[in-house]
Design brief:
Strand order of the largest sheet: 1-9-18-17-16-15-14-13-10-11-12
Number of strands: 18
Radius of gyration: 26 Å
Oligomer: single chain
Mean pLDDT: 93
Length: about 525
Amino acid sequence: MPSCNPPANTALPPPLSPLLSPLLTIPQLRSIEKRYSGASLMQKAGAAAFRFIEALPKTPVDGPIVILCGPGNNGGDGLVLARLLREHGFSPCVIAPAIDALPPDAAEALAEFLNRGGTLHTTLSGLPDLSNLPNPPPPALIVDALFGIGLNRAPAAPFNNLIRWINDARSAHRVPVLALDIPSGLDSDTGVAHTPTVCATATLSFIALKPGLLTLDGPDHCGELHIDTLDIPPEDLEADAHALQRRFIETHLPAPLRRRFHNVHKGTFGCLGILGGASGMGGAPLLAGRAAARMGAGKVRVGFLGDAPIFDPGCPELMLHPAQTLLKMQHDAWVVGCGLGIFSPASDILTTAFSFDTPLLLDADALTLIGQHPEWTARIAERHAPTVLTPHPAEAARLLQCGADEIQRDRPKAAREIARRYRAHTVLKGCGSIIADPDSSWCINTTGNPALAFGGSGDVLTGMIGALLVQGAEASLALRYAVCLHGAAADALVEEGKGALGVLSDEIIQSALGMVRSAVS
């Protein structure tokens, strides 16, 4: 997987406008481009980029603004920007190696740039020599206008060398890089970063967010994300997917978490059953139970396939039982899979769980077992109560009978297929978790950071989802809210200087609880 190591002190200013929620795929964006004048959109994109650069703070580096323009309309955006910079007293250095292949709108932008006195280089020799710095000085800013949403393969020569030059300038000389629409080399729909892909300091994306900016490699390559709608009204954005953002925690707080009524008792908020804890894996269901208790479940019972502890010192409110004992009790929702194991007792428990007439969350080893028994797919899909699946990429691969690399090549497609095949509300975990519902709606979560990369993090998320399900939250909302909150809790810890290194489960739980309490107040 491509990687980049951005320098710490090249951050561009805060977004000029708030992030938008709709996510548009390439076909949807092409449809919008057809309904609007391509030339008009190009002029607006170049103007948006100029406004962005104009708003940058003054820099002590007295170097050129270098604009690298590709052979498509993204290159045309860069040429419009170059013309506007010249008209306002800048002298941009423009590199455009494929001017003979420009589409009509971009060719018109080139002619206008040249007619206004602009000059450009068509070969790599026009690039500033980074080997002899500080004389001449490094660029003050590099603008990546090489490739937009249409690229779905590794960039070829000479553009691959231009991208390497951009990344060298940023990593070795801390030159800020602004990508227009999407970093060149990044797949707009999937977030796959081909080799090489621009590692931008910031990305100014146009019209709306794209899935690839938010999942897999996208967040590590787009830097600080900014959106300019190019004056296209929201009602014209025919999106079937959305970005799940931190403000969702306040705007969609599930009603039971508000605790507005006084005449209630523990039964009001449901009894959650958690099944797992094979020998050597007892901590997993305990973590899920602790998270569920903190997120408001009225009662939490944990059933162990291995020896059940007498009580949990970290959360004595949990009621601990052998798994077979728990199966005989009534619960308002179930969680199955945390440390469950993959041997015959686990299979027996799992097949019993399929018949529960209450919401059922299947996680971890339960998903592995389902992948080993494709004949169970129909039983899950035929359940009348809601089903929630929470796979990571390897577990998703087992559910779809394919390789994990295939899952990662198109994460949105994989999540949606799991939701369709199992008729289940699904979250495909990872960078930019994908949430998909059986009705084909889907979203990408934008919260979270590497603080969540520890064993037990997924168990905490599972407990949070289970708590919302048992309190009566609709499955789609429960999944979205818990995933967003889980990531936001980690973000809050980092903002407080407590991560991302060394964060553990209880810190995530406490941070999430604090955010819910803040939303309630």
